[in-house]
Amino acid sequence: MWRRAVALSVLLALLAGLGAGCAHADASGPIRIEIKIHYSHYDPDAIAVPHGVPITFVLINEDPIDHEFLIGDAAFHERHRHGTEAQHGARPNEISISALTTAETTLVFDKPGTILYICHLPRHEEYGMVGTLTVT
Amino acid sequence: MRRLLSIAIASIALLLTAAPALACGGLIGPNGAVNLLRTTTFAGYHDGVEHYVTAFKFAGGGGAFGSITPLPGIPSNVERGGDWTLQRLVIETSPPAPEGLLLAQAAAGARDSAEVLFQTRIDALDITILRGGGDEVGVWAKDHGFSLPPDAPEVLDFYADRSPIFMAASFDADAAAERGQGIGDGTPVHLTIPTDNPWVPLRILGLGKTAAETVEADVFLLTDERPAMLPNPSDLLANSGLALDHSAAASEQLLADLRSDKGMEWIPQQAWLTKIAIDVPAATLRYDLAIDVSGRGTPSLRDAGFSPFGPLPVPPTTTGVWILLLASLLALPLGGVWLLTVAARGGGPRPLAGA
Q1: Contacts of B20 in chain A (CB under 8 A)
Q2: Model confidence over B56-69: pLDDT tens digits?
Q3: Looking at the whole model, is its pTM more than 0.80?
Q4: What is the domain range of residue A103?
Q5: Positions of chain A with pLDDT lower than 70, given as ranges
Q6: Residues of chain B positioned with their CB less than 8 A from the CB of A84
Q7: CATH number, domain containing residue A94
Q8: CA–CA distance from A2 to each of A7, A13, A14, A15, B37 (Å)?
């Protein structure tokens, strides 16, 4: 009996933990996910979303410095590690977020897989500004 | 008022580009970056006033760049420093002195921005004294062309929580070249700061560096009395990365030489000279140097940035460790005596049956 109670508690805790990093559905539109940027780190830095559904990322930059939210595959990130664009924003998966501001972008992920979101400003990735998006 | 020696410093090259900061990675490469050479700083405290002298020396790169230095209070004066103070201190603590050193010329958004308290220009340096929180100072720096590194938000908050006063210095390498200043030459800056705040900002020396990069700096302190410091540079157990290179009463000759430099008339007749060498990975340097020259020997945990005021736990002190060691040494013979006593009373191990 005691073991069952413990197992149930652990299962509930795991489910709650998963929920914290998952997308929140809104009946009236795309799924909205808030990502805070604080001390040059994404919070959360691991997110799971379903494929084929519009996802709106709300990017809240709490830092007094600029940041980026660039999301894509390995080849995409490799290009941006050596890129020269001063500002992003024309493409929905390349967003610049000015200091102490909020930006939004909406994306649809066609197939399951795992990709990264990274800030490619100098030394930001090295400092740990990397997150993982799992498309289920 | 606590008599302390305060500040020393810190100046980290925050890359500042003449053009707007570009957004993609790899733009500040090895050839485009400006590196701060070994920093040498002098902090003297006398009659409730701190005198802080540092030279801005940079190597590599071109165009404009700058630094931000936390201060323990609002300066009452900012001026060009004397020509030989820092060099004379090096000679005093690192004999034999290199030939000709004394002759070397020191020339060698969403929220409000910070409040500008004071602005001046010294040689090719534009100096601005700011008051504000970490966000405000960060915004001001961004608005004025500083490209702050990713650790800047946390580091600025670390300082602003204790003293919201900063000095921003932007350095135009091209202008310096026009003045005949070469790479490696510096401009000494002398700040006069009425304060009783006893901390010396060290953490900011690691700003913008990767975890593996090393911070190298020399900090000279001149105080009326021998200072107590936290972390204690002479405490090997603290493993702070600070080394006490020199600690002695300042010689009359040294004091006379310092007093004869520009702006150094305040040097007292007697003083204690301390030199601290810093050679530590940037990832380790997450504290400041708290100083107490009151004679009470109680440098402030808060001023050093230790828990609960900062991210690090309080370091072990030599005193505590020695007490623990002494207690252990005393416990051994006492324990032995107790065991012998118990055995003598028949309480020891019983012989095996049939033995």
Answers
A1: 86
A2: 765 555 555 678 88
A3: no
A4: 22-135
A5: 1-28, 84, 86-87, 89
A6: 22, 24, 27
A7: 2.60.40.420
A8: 9, 17, 19, 20, 64
